[in-house]
Amino acid sequence: MPVEAVKKEKDTSQNWVAGLDELERTPVTETRLGRLGARLWSGTWPKVLALVLVIGSWQLLFLSEWKAPWVLPSPLTVWEDLAAYAATPDYWQAILITLQRALTGFALSVLVGSVLGIAVARFKPLRAAIGSLITGLQTMPSIMWFPLAILLFKISESAILFVVVLGAVPSIANGIISGIDYVPPAWKRVGAVLGMKGFGLYRHVILPATLPSFVSGLKQGWAFAWRSLMAGELLVIVAGQGSVGALMQGAREFNDAARVLTWILTILFIGILVDAVFRAADDRIRRSWGLHQDR
Known about the structure:
This protein is 82% helix and 0% strand. The protein is mainly α and 295 residues long. The two termini are 55 Å apart. Belongs to the binding-protein-dependent transport system permease family. It comes from Glycomyces paridis.
């Protein structure tokens, strides 16, 4: 066969392949866009429906005059109060104070809980000594610690942080302990074959394998820390610190139900945003492990 004919046939084959690739590429893009739209819709409409049901039920309860309007205001009244209050610096200053306390307490909890969890999982005598104690502390209502915290630290920031840390540490420690317990033994043997032992084995094999359980423990620890903080700010009002809990308590004392509900909604919004952060971290871990599925 002549060289020119071979070259012509080769060029024709490449054109056919390129054409087929282009035909395959277009539907894939459309499919991905369709999946993205379907996923956004499937994740949005239940939230919108739930919001409509809650607001509708709230409005019906208001119209039924079950309670006086100054005790149970309408959704519109609360929304107007929230919109007006959000335009003032006091609103954002209170949120900033509360978030600073939350992040400080949570950071201390992560540090203490991580060290405690690794130590308990690593040393059997320590687990036998305090393993059950950690679970017992996790089940205790955080509000039970406030009388002791006030005796130890008086009415101060330290009293609030003390309870926040005690509320979050057990969940974080248990998350790490559970994650280490469920690391497959085969992974440890592979690490040992590769020459890893001690700290190197924990750094490169065991701790990465505990990430899903660790993130779950962090999420639960944040929930305990946040609840402890809200209880602390309602009970331990530090002078000169207009936090969310302090201002909410002040609104309650003045029978300002709209302002109380404004702060309740604010706390709910913050919780939803934090949950979205943890969900994104969990999805990223799932993708890295090949477990993520399009929903």
